[in-house]
Amino acid sequence: MYDLLTNLLGNQIVAYVIAASLPLIFVLTFVLFAxxxxxxxxxxxxxxxxxxxxxxxxxxxxxxxxxKLLQKEDxxxxxxxxxxxxxxxxxxxxGTYAAFAAIPFAGIYVGSSTAIGIYxxxxxxxxxxxxxxxxxxASDNKYSLxxxxxxxxxxVSYEIPTAIAILTxxxxxxxxxxxxxxxxxxxxxxxxxxxxxxxxxxxxxLLIPFMIITFLIYYISSLAEVNRTPFDLPExxxxxxxxxxxxxxxxxxxxxxxxxxxxxxxxxxxxxxLFLGGFHSPIGYLGHxxxxxxxxxxxxFFWFTFKGTALVFVQMxxxxxxxxxxxxxxxxxxxxxxxxxAVVNLIIVGIITLL
Amino acid sequence: MLTEFGKILLFMIIAAAFxxxxxxxxxxxxxxxxxxxxxxxxxxxxxxxxxxxVKFNIRFYVVALIFLIFDVEVVLLFPxxxxxxxxxxxxxxxxxxxxxxxxxxxAYEWRKGDLDWDRPKPQIPTLTNDSAGFExxx
Lengths: 355, 138
Hints:
The complex is a heterodimer of chains A (355) and B (138). By secondary structure, chain A is an all-alpha fold.
């Protein structure tokens, strides 16, 4: 992609900046539709209609909301630590967007094909916690600080089952590069890692149940990492008045919102890349059978977005299905169930790979 | 030519530039009429009492400590997960011994009750026939 753009534009620096901005455009478009989808999904699950006025079936509602937020007065509370208060949305968004650098969107596009992709993503998403903690700390508001402390405790706890699930994946695939992991799952859906990947014979069949468990552990803990219901204690509207962003208004609030939705897609994209075949088509490419080369990347991008969005939809679905857990239940789920299961799962998968 | 990490830095610069651009655009068109009431800290319409920077439950500290241990462990296990297949069963056992020592530590924490989040015992209000009417009996 970098070479293609360099040839097209003739200037390397411009090409690099444009190539690195492409995920930003994708993220903004995704968030526009995801916010609307969230409202529509919740509405239809509760037998309502949701936003209907702005555009056909409220299709440009989010755009209108964004314009509204742009015009809103920015209120900084008196007691707040102003530097940190302003730094927090930046840090949160930076942590989220930096994770997109290693995610392969299609065979020809990955922001940075670094060899330690998945490791880097795990590390850099830690910046989000720092941003949220700063936001709560700097607001000088009790709700915000409680929300921030809960966020930190929650994300930090669920980081461990996520990391162990990823470790399990690294053990079977033997690489940290997300591009290589995607390419292992090429051809058809029975090559997805959730179905044992490209292994053959008895190993593949032994792997299937344990890979499904790994996927479930990853997915549950990623829900907690992006503060989605049932783990939305940090921003519990009914008890903490949105937690860490209680005091934020206008564009700063918009950036937190943007980061949150972008993060939802980022964790789903990682789940897709690790377990569900990445950008590869489950049923083969139309471009290959028709002999049209440029169609293949388009199809890959379509499949990647489709799978990622499907997982985001499940996140929304869960929000309107499950009630919020209590703090003690939250900790019990993580430390007494997910982590022991993840460790045992890792050992079993390790033994299977040695066969 | 940028290295792969140079590209990551470029991503970070773009994100770090995008946020101020959004904020400055908003600053150009939004009103700014702060009043004392508006800048007060939100506490459901009440006057705020005391500072929010209060003492916190020690559990948060314990969770952070256990996290630190496990996170360092996972970081150490990543290179092992990449390389253990080259060394067969002995290579695998090295990692597992390391993991089991940590799991024993966690089992100890579990037994000591450090993984349990305390919750207050429910106090059930009861009715008494006092002249004061309702009263909570603890």
